[in-house]
TrEMBL record:
One protein family per Pfam: CHCH
Compositionally biased spans, kind Acidic residues: 29-38
Protein location: Mitochondrion intermembrane space
Gene Ontology terms, MF aspect: protein-disulfide reductase activity
GO biological process: mitochondrial respiratory chain complex assembly; protein import into mitochondrial intermembrane space
All residue ranges annotated as the CHCH domain in the record: 64-100
Region (Disordered): 17-39, 102-135
Any single Gene Ontology cellular-component annotation: mitochondrial intermembrane space
The protein, known as: MIA40 protein
Originating species: Rhinopomastus cyanomelas
Gene: Chchd4
Transmembrane segments: none
InterPro entries: CHCH (IPR010625), CHCHD4 (IPR039289)
Keyword entries, A-Z: Disulfide bond, Mitochondrion, Oxidoreductase, Protein transport, Redox-active center, Translocation, Transport
Domain of life, source organism: Eukaryota
């Protein structure tokens, strides 16, 4: 005899051998590529941008969402030889908006940027010095 019981948030189902002998009557539904709730990735099958993609990290819905959408759309649909070179104004507007909200869009600290450049340059300088001494 099969039965179910609830234990907290869990539902435990006990099935008998007879329950499993009859084939399932469940029908599978084909995936709908236009289902807005289905995870599609950044670019939808029709080529449009999926503004709900978690990969955008909420940028499309923040206080600078419209500026972000404008800049990203321009870049995505750009046909220039250097992709996005026609989008400088949109990216500038997005950057200006983000600077108004430093708590939401933290800027790289100039000191951090400088020290990371020094760090990146150090191994190159060290290897160049080794080459000079070994030759």
């Amino acid at each position: 005899m099969s039965y179910c019981r609830q234990e907290g948030k869990d539902k435990i189902i006990f099935a008998t051998k007879e329950d499993h002998e009859t084939p399932s009557s469940a029908e599978l539904v084909a995936d709908d590529p236009d289902d807005p709730y289905e995870e599609q990735g950044l670019i939808l099958p029709n080529g449009d941008i999926n503004w709900n993609c978690p990969c955008l990290g909420g940028m499309a819905s923040g206080p600078c969402g419209e500026q972000f959408k404008s800049a990203f759309s321009c870049f995505h649909y750009s046909t220039e030889e250097i992709k996005g070179s026609d989008c400088v104004d949109q990216f500038r507007a997005m950057q200006e908006c983000m600077q108004k909200y430093p708590d939401l869009y933290p800027q790289e600290d100039e000191n951090e940027e400088k020290s990371s450049k020094d760090f990146e340059a150090t191994p190159v300088e060290a290897s160049a010095a080794k080459e000079k001494t070994s030759s």
